[in-house]
Amino acid sequence: MESDEELAGRVARGDESAVEELVGRYSLSLAHLIDRHTGGNDVEDLYQETWIRALGAIDSFDKQRKFSSWIFRIAVNLCRDWYRRRQVRPQSTEDSELVATGHDRSASLDARSLLDRLPVEQREAVVLRYYHDLSEAEMAEVMGVAQGTIKSRLHAALVKLQTYTREGGENS
Amino acid sequence: MTYREPTERELRRRLTRDLEEATQPGAERLARMLAPTTLAVDDVTMARRVVAALRPELARRAAVDLRRQVLVRVVVAAVPLPFVIAYAGYVLRALYAPVAVMLSPDVAGYVAAVHIMLLTLLFGATYAVIPMMLARRAYDGAVTSTA
């Protein structure tokens, strides 16, 4: 099977089948990353913009680097721009269109509301680390910060999440 | 890379990995709260739309790549051309001398001109085949990928 980096080379030469393969490989992970990052807002627009930007910049992609980190970084930067442009909090959990499977609906709402309460950088760190299982080095590349910053953001996020879950437990 | 949503158990394991020992008992509850759900994103449709949106840019890139390939191959193929022309000229001169003895100068000139035109046609056709073969290969590739 061709690697992502080899496919990226073919994409740069305008090979449509390579694009289809690459988009197929990342469709779910990118869509979920954006969805969790923006709280379900403008997911399709940001998803499409991610690929358009990626294709526009594919000539500058260094094949020695991981394609996954590169495309995630584009998506994360677009999500950050989206926050700056909109300057809004993600939609409330009551409006979100979650479909819970395997867990009850309240549990799914809890997950989103918990993430929504975190600052953007910390939410980003939690999503990449726990939902996408990225290493700290990969996260540093995606988020464009030092590994030490990743550690501190994760730590702060986990402390906050634990406080929120304790609060939730006490209130219920 | 095949992505799939982590299970609650995987989430707990990942959380436990990062949580300090004193706070680890909270990992289970946290994992339960963060447990992945199926989000309402139709990634298949989105992927299809993305490919459609990228098509014009891909076509532009493919055209640029084809032009670049044609140029490279024509340049490489043109390298021996001066030697071939010099050799053809030598052969023509060698043939013209005996023909000019046997025929009138006008007819000999006509034969030489026809010979030069045939050679030009042959060279032209040879170089024209290069872009045609590349375009054919690109077309075959596109047909195979859509099949």
Provide a brief overview of the structure:
The complex is a heterodimer of chains A (172) and B (147). Chain A has eight helices and one strand.
What report would you give on this structure?
The complex is a heterodimer of chains A (172) and B (147). Chain A has 172 residues and is mainly α. Chain A has eight helices and one strand. Chain A has helices at residues 4-12, 16-38, 43-56, 67-86, 105-116, 120-131, 136-143, 147-171, and one strand at 98-99. The model of chain A is unreliable at 90-105 (pLDDT under 50). Chain B has 147 residues and is mainly alpha-helical. Chain B folds into two domains: 1-40, no CATH class; 57-146, no CATH class. In chain B, 14% of the residues are buried. At the A-B interface, α1, α2, α3, β1 and α5 of A face α1, α2, β1, α3 and α5 of B.
Radius of gyration of chain B: 35 Å
The CATH C-level class name of the largest domain in chain A: Mainly Alpha
CATH architecture of the largest domain in chain A: Orthogonal Bundle
Q: Sum up the overall morphology of chain B in one term.
A: rod-shaped
| Percentage of residues in strands of chain A | under 5%
Largest interface: A-B, 61 and 50 residues
- The secondary-structure element order of chain B is HHEHHH
User: Number of DSSP strands of chain B?
Assistant: 1
Contiguous helical run count of chain B: 5
Q: Could you list the spans of chain A in which at least 5 consecutive residues all have pLDDT below 50? A: 90-105
Quickly count the domains of chain A. 2
The name CATH uses for the topology of the largest domain in chain A is Rna Polymerase Sigma Factor, Chain: A
Total domain units of chain B: 2
The helix content of chain A is over 70%
Mean pLDDT of chain B: 83
- What is Rg of chain A? 17 Å
Assembly classification: heterodimer
Shape of chain A: elongated
Q: Give the proportion of residues in helices of chain B.
A: over 70%
Mean pLDDT of chain A: 84
Largest sheet of chain B: none
